[in-house]
Design brief:
single chain, 175 residues, alpha+beta, NADH Oxidase, 3-stranded antiparallel beta sheet, 6 helices, 3 strands, 34% helix, globular, oxidoreductase activity, Nitroreductase family protein, Nitroreductase-like, Nitroreductase
Length: 175
C-alpha cells in the first residue's frame, strides 16, 4: 500500500474478529516501532504483546473501556523516562519517543490489514500490576490489534489552511 494511502486508511477500530494474527505480522508491526526515531537514538521504548484472554480481561478493567476485553491482542508501549532525554527548556521527551514508536506501530498495522485504536486514558498502576511492569517504567499507550469487524466511518478533518501558517503564526498559507 502507498504510504499516503496507509495514513488515509488508518482509523480507530473497536470491534474485532477473533481470527489469529500471524507472528510474522506481529513481528513486522513491532519492527516498525523498533525502527522509529528516539531521543539521541537511545531506543528506550519497550513493548508487551498480550494475547492471554484472562490478562486482557484484567487489563480492560484498568483501561475502563469494556470493548477492549474483546481484542485478540493488546500491545503495551512502555519506556523508562531516564532512557530518553530533555530539550533545552527541560521538556522530557520520553513520551514523545513512545508516541513516535506507537504511531509507527499503528501505521504498520494498517498496512498489514489490521485495526488498532490508540488508548491513552487508562489506570497506569492497574496495567503495571497486571503485567508486572517495574515501578520505574512508564506505560505511555496501549492499542488493541486485530482484524476489524467493520470499517469505521471517516472523521471530518480540518483543512490545511486551518492548521498551517506561512513564516509566522497567523499568516494563512496558500497551496
Amino acid at each position: 500500500m502507498d504510504f499516503t494511502d496507509v495514513i488515509i486508511k488508518r482509523r480507530s477500530h473497536r470491534k474485532f474478529t477473533q481470527d489469529t494474527i500471524s507472528d510474522e505480522k506481529i513481528k513486522k508491526i513491532i519492527e516498525a516501532g523498533r525502527l522509529a526515531p528516539t531521543w539521541a537514538n537511545k531506543q528506550g521504548v519497550n513493548y508487551i504483546i498480550v494475547k492471554n484472554r484472562s490478562l486482557i480481561k484484567e487489563m480492560a478493567n484498568g483501561i475502563n473501556q469494556k470493548w477492549t476485553e474483546n481484542a485478540p491482542i493488546l500491545i503495551v508501549v512502555c519506556i523508562e523516562p531516564n532512557r530518553s532525554g530533555k530539550n533545552i527548556n527541560g521538556l522530557e521527551y520520553f513520551t514523545v519517543d513512545a508516541a513516535i514508536c506507537m504511531e509507527h506501530i499503528v501505521l504498520a498495522a494498517t498496512n498489514e490489514g489490521l485495526g488498532t485504536c490508540w488508548i491513552g486514558l487508562f489506570d497506569e498502576q492497574k496495567i503495571k500490576k497486571t503485567l508486572s511492569i517495574p515501578e520505574k517504567v512508564r506505560v505511555i499507550a496501549l492499542t488493541p490489534l486485530g482484524y476489524s469487524r467493520y470499517t469505521p466511518r471517516e472523521q471530518k478533518r480540518k483543512s490545511i489552511d486551518q492548521i498551517c501558517f506561512s513564516e509566522k503564526w497567523g499568516n494563512n498559507i496558500k497551496f
